[in-house]
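Appendix B. Raw example, untouched.
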Amino acid sequence: MAKCYLAVDLGAESGRVMLGTIRNDKLELEEVHRFPNLPLANGNSLTWDLDALFREIKVGLTKASRLGLVIESVSVDSWGVDYVLIDGKGAIMPPAYHYRDERNKAAAEKVLEEIAWEDVYEETGLQFIAFNTLFQLAAENPDRLKVAKMILPMADAFNYLLCGVAKTELSIASTTQLYDPRNRRWSTRLLEATGINEDKFPEIVPSGTELGTLLPEIGMETGLGNVKVVAGLSHDTGAAVAAVPVTEDSGHWAFLSSGTWSLIGTELNDPLVSDDARERNFTNEIGYDHRVRFLRNVIGLWLIQECRRKWAGEGISINYEELATLARKAQPFAHLIDPDDERFFNPEDMPATIAAYCRETGQAEPSSSGAFVRCVLESLALLYRKRITDLSELTDRDFSRLHVIGGGSRNELLNQFTADALGIPVIAGPAEATALGNVAAQALSLGELSSLEEARRRIGKSCDLQVFEPGNTGDWASAATRLDQLS
């Protein structure tokens, strides 16, 4: 009987428990359980419902146990930067703040009054985002931090709840802006700047570290028994990039992890920390086998998600397929926005915010849902064009193709726009890259796979990849010039 692995993949909108099986030289996935991840709003505060998430994780594990399969291990991955405080008795200290909470901007400004941004970047190689863990901890209540025994990234906190072993997995440690990627340790200098003792941060362990087995009560409640718990690739992007279906002789390739956020970059052997990289706001995150994800984190399909949410609140419910059809019919390049403008980070009314940007830049406002969506998709493709240019200049590489992974790889219109804007082929898939990378890290940990290259080869054979060839590049070059003049 084939060995199976459970990937618990927590996203900013939903979570899933996925069953991964390696057989016939392929890595197969099956969804066992899906659940919403809805933040809690209390006044101006935005937090995560950890109790609800853990209940749903256990529901998914219980469903998996009833399949009658040989399950080797389970591992949790999640978004980065957010954290959980654990008290001296091993219990969660609520609340766990959401990265979009309003407290972070002022805290970031305060930290940078104490230590120059140039020094922070030199220490961590991580791009500036006001909600990085460094800044979030600066916004914390000092009394809570004093009481806390441990500070754990989100996914590692759930691995801890499952098995009782607290470790920080490397890939998610590297998103905190508290990790020194060149010396491969917590940054003593930045921890001193926060006033937090290093002993509150658990040991950093390599990707694919076996932590232990499910706690007896969890094993009994779910029916899984003594299943292993692995710190595979706790950061969802780290897991997703591990699933990019490339081989060692694939030449220079870039990736776009496409979802609520867009993460666009390439894989390096060593961190690239330079003045130029800092000024262009590129980041060095660490992946499997200490490979570097050199990337820029920019806004993604959040823009459309928020438009759709606003329209639904007004009684207009349009699914993503219908929106794509309407966008295809809308006038090309009628409206453009700079998706990096901070006004789009968390507005109350995304369509109104887009319309206001167009007014302020001398453009007509979009007048239909199709026009809004086309505006967003074209603008995202042009943003990707800018970032690929930055990436090429920073790494001295000419990229022959872009691999689009994650849920956004299903957006055929955006994929075609991206190919057109970049002038290189776009290879779309796998959509379930994060779960596949999570499973691969577990299988590598337990010896069923021998290398990341083998894992990527099997993933490539398991997925139906779609290739989008570039066309219409002249129109996109003109649009890029126009957007530069607007920004």
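End of appendix B.
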